[in-house]
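Revision sheet: structure tokens.
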Amino acid sequence: MPMEAGFLRSALLAAFFTCSQWAAAQPCAALEDLRSMFMKHSTFEQAEDSERAAIGALQVTSESCRPYVEAHRWVSYCRAADFGWNVAERYQRFKGGMAQLDSLVGAHPGDDILCALRLSVSGTAPQFLGADGDWKTDAQAALRVSKTSFWSENPAFLDWMADLAVKIEAKTADAE
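Predicted:
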């Protein structure tokens, strides 16, 4: 019996170590679902569901992943403004969410992923809203991220972000 118990203990430790390594390799597991939900935003309710999913993911995510999940929360919050009826509420939602995204980018200067996520909102918003101040920086950041494996689990999101960045770069080049 002691030998079986020792074997069982070794097997459990090996399984735990393997799972721990897998979890460490996947520090932002919630992001795949959040990106997929973002790509499906076509109603106010879907955007709110995506925001709630991000809020839930914040409760269990790793510290290194937290800024990206938080950014997805505010991206969804902003994108819900696309579907509202009340213009004043839509504007408040958009401006409030953009302020939170700007704050995240400010708290993590040089983080290309956060800049790219900010572009996912500012790059699709009407220019009269004045959210185009960081387009050039954010588009360059999105293109750099698109050349990494960060979005590889979501090829549709990767393609969409890279295409958006190219379009924004063309707009900023035309403006110069």
